[in-house]
Design brief:
8-stranded mixed sheet, about 300 residues, 17 strands, 8 helices, globular
Length: about 300
């Protein structure tokens, strides 16, 4: 009997610990429906806390704390209008740090984040504006409750030390700690590198060109322009085939496009040792043609 009571108390204490792990959040808004990111991230916990951070340069990250205390990170990429989600686990050490960040978000003063007024040397006041700097946004959602903090053109105001710049610095610092885009991109690179076969999407642009080759077994070449190099892929004589939706979804994790060449540049020498296919998306009928590659060159 004592063992049963002990186990019951242990489970109860664990549950209480999980429930009190979340810092108190001052939500300022209510919605008539639950936040839309539950569905986007395919979560089953409608009461999960979601911290969404993004900037005007399209880096979007999510930190999710479930009701049971589990925590995960997500990065969102949009390719041809389709959302691609990358998910990463969070270690216990990272979890403590992210909980501290959530507490820090709660101390941001929204009234200080977009001040534009400066005092000139003659004592008069004037408004200033900046261009070509990113805007920063941090949002927190739980159920129908939410709170948003944002600072527009923040780095410009910080550099000029405009009123409220220290609060802007705090928001930008929190944002950078929440930004998982580079970590998730590296995770994506490692996932592709681990594959024996890589599929390369070709859509044709200023940096993606198709060139017909006369004679021999080279039916055409495709060139991708990178930062310092160009990458040349040569089609071989093996039969091509049309890829259906099921095929594309099945091989999504080993499929790359021009951005991959641009981002990783000199780190894709492993392509020489992989089986490569082009997914040619330039067919007039709209079909996606999978073409075997016989040669990969860096020029």
């Amino acid at each position: 009997m004592s063992k049963i009571v002990f186990h019951f108390l242990l489970i109860t204490n664990l549950c209480v610990a999980q429930q009190t792990i979340l810092p108190k959040i001052n939500f300022t808004q209510n919605s008539i429906t639950a936040n839309p990111y539950i569905g986007l991230l395919k979560l089953t916990d409608n009461n999960a806390l979601i911290v969404r951070s993004y900037n005007s340069e399209f880096a979007v990250s999510y930190l999710v704390l479930s009701s049971d205390g589990a925590m995960h990170r997500y990065g969102l990429y949009n390719i041809d209008g389709k959302n691609l989600i990358r998910k990463l686990n969070v270690t216990e050490n990272e979890k403590a740090r992210f909980l501290k960040l959530i507490s820090d978000i709660n101390t941001l003063d929204a009234t200080q984040l977009n001040l534009k007024e400066v005092t000139l040397s003659n004592g008069t006041k004037s408004e200033v504006n900046f261009n070509n700097y990113p805007d920063y946004f941090i949002e927190m959602y739980q159920g129908i409750k939410s709170v948003t903090f944002n600072s527009l053109q923040a780095d410009g105001f910080i550099e000029a030390e405009v009123s409220g710049y220290r609060m802007r610095q705090k928001l930008v610092s929190i944002f950078k700690d929440l930004d998982f885009s580079e970590t998730i991109a590296t995770h994506a690179y490692d996932a592709v590198k681990a594959k024996d076969t890589v599929y390369i999407r070709f859509k044709k642009s200023n940096f993606e060109q198709k060139q017909t080759i006369a004679g021999g077994d080279k039916l055409y070449d495709i060139a991708f322009g990178g930062k310092n190099h160009a990458y040349l892929l040569t089609k071989n004589n093996s039969p091509a085939f049309v890829a259906d939706t099921a095929f594309l979804e099945k091989h999504q994790s080993e499929t790359v496009d021009y951005d991959f060449f641009l981002k990783y540049n000199t780190r894709i020498s492993f392509f020489h040792f992989r089986v490569l296919y082009i997914i040619d998306e330039t067919d007039a009928s709209g079909k996606k043609i999978v073409v075997p590659v016989s040669d990969f060159s860096v020029i």
